[in-house]
Amino acid sequence: MGRSPGRLADRVVLITGSTGIAAAAADHAAAEGASVFVISRDPDHARALAERVGGGWAAADLTREIEVDAAVAGAFERYGRVDGLFSVAGGSGRRFGDGPIHALTADGWDRTLELNLTTQALTARAVVRVMLAQDPVGPAPGIRGSIVLVSSVLASRPVPELFATHAYAASKGAIIALATTMAAAYAPDRIRVNVIAPSLTATPMAQRATDDPAIVAFARGKQPLVNGFLEASDIAPGAIYLLSDESRAVTGQVLTIDGGWSVMATPAVAPSPALSPAPSEERPS
Q1: Which of 62, 174, 167 is nearest to 123 (CA)?
Q2: Residue 274 and which of 69, 94, 168, 284 are 20 to 30 A apart at CA?
Q3: Nearest Cα to 55, choosing from 81, 17, 88, 29?
Q4: Residue 281: phi, psi to the nearest 5?
């Protein structure tokens, strides 16, 4: 019996970021038959991931619209269309001055929103422009494209004792609002827009969290389905579902992947003097 062609066969999927969740999603998308195009700030990371999955890549600072537009144009020039976007890249703004609102600096606010919200908005803008001009594919009447943005469980389920980064939470909440308005605007064009909201995930950018005994203990109680931190491979299948025709009737939704975080009581934790990294941190690497 022949091998199934995969849920993303003949589709082009653009992924921002090149480590952690982004890398896991690239592996899963390629395994499902997609042509994968990686955009990352770090050209070595982008090239290595693209070579691993047999796809294309571009290096870009996703906070700069000229670089974003050029990178997305590169994907279009290589493949002739863009069927899916998984917009992962983002990160903590603590190094810029993010923190609780009474301690937050103006620069910390601006840089954190730029890193987490502007990057996703600029990438989505460039991709939507491509999608609007291409023919629908898939089961009739077909879909022009699927966009999956990445938020965080902290947008709706805060734990101030450990994760008091208010600009980060605000940026992740704004991503949900952006996706909802985009979903409504582009549904008539048969472009779908959804969100994945992960909780604590073991990625390279969450190293300090995974090394913090208090956060490790917290994660075991708050995320009992995985007995601690999620793995990047726990997030990737959700992205594949939302990018594929299996979800062709789904738009404007938030898929929370949190190991139980949302329904579990918060374990007693002592306030941390050092603001911990936010769940599922990524950055344009």
Answers
A1: 62
A2: 284
A3: 29
A4: -60, 135
Half-sphere exposure of 130 (CA within 13 A, CB side): 28
Annotated domain spans of the chain: 12-263
**Beta 191-198 vs 56-59: how paired, if at all?**
unpaired
3-state helix, strand, coil in the chain (%, to 5): 45, 15, 40
Two tokens, residue 145: 């494209």
3-state secondary structure of 277: coil
Q: What is the DSSP string of 161-200?
A: TT---HHHHHHHHHHHHHHHHHHHHHGGGTEEEEEEEE-S
Query: In whole angstroms, what is the distance from residue 130 CA to residue 19 CA?
Result: 25
Nearest C-alpha neighbor of 131 from the set 187, 191, 55, 195: 191
Instruction: Say which DSSP state 264 is in.
Output: S
Reported CATH class of domain 12-263: alpha beta
pLDDT in tens, 56-75: 999 999 999 999 999 999 99
> pLDDT tens digits for 189-210?
999 999 999 999 998 877 778 8
The verdict on pTM exceeding 0.90 is yes
Phi and psi, residue 36, nearest 5° = -105, 135
Taking the C-alpha atoms of residue 168 and residue 164, their distance in angstroms, rounded to an integer, is: 9
What are the backbone angles phi and psi of residue 42, rounded to the nearest 5°? Answer: -90, 110
Rounded to whole angstroms, the Cα distance separating 151 from 159 reads: 16
